[in-house]
Pyridoxamine 5'-phosphate oxidase family protein (Undibacterium parvum), 206 residues
Amino acid sequence: MPNSNQHLITTAAQLASVFGEIAAPSLRKEVAYLHLHYQAMIAASPFAVLATSGPDGLDASPRGDAAGFVLVQDQHTLLLPERKGNNRVDSLRNLLADPRMALLFLIPGVGETLRVNGRAAISLDPALLARCAVDGKAPKCVLVISVETVYFQCARAIYRSGLWQNTAPPASLPSPGTILEALSEAQILAEVYDQGLRARQQASLY
């Protein structure tokens, strides 16, 4: 039997040789706060995946409600209501041991997703519970998330999957170029970046 270990990537240098350098826009889109354009994406999202880590391992679980169910408290804080479920509370148990977490926001019809990394605390603050109530029913608790990094993910995975075929994006959302122009202080121009973006992504799906 051949030794399959010889084909494993085990160093950062090997990774770099396979994937090359990071493109400038991929670096400029990452910030340590909730830019207004990123807030718009959160407000338009009805679905997110919450990732956590704890003594028993990793967990990724869905969160969903009407668009905007994750509330922006301020540029550095998100509020995620925890509603009725199966009571496994794997994510919450993990957060008790390790507050680090990540959120992946999806928006129907939009190829780009939004990634938020940070730390979460589990709150029973009556004011927060009331603020997150739906039809008069408060969540079980609220995750108060301190944001550390935020950036949008390119649309290639969504295009490859065909996830949003025949679904139109909200007209109010900023384009990827608009976000990059704002975050790069116009060093990257929206019109230039957006022009042919879909074609560039399609040409590099695989």
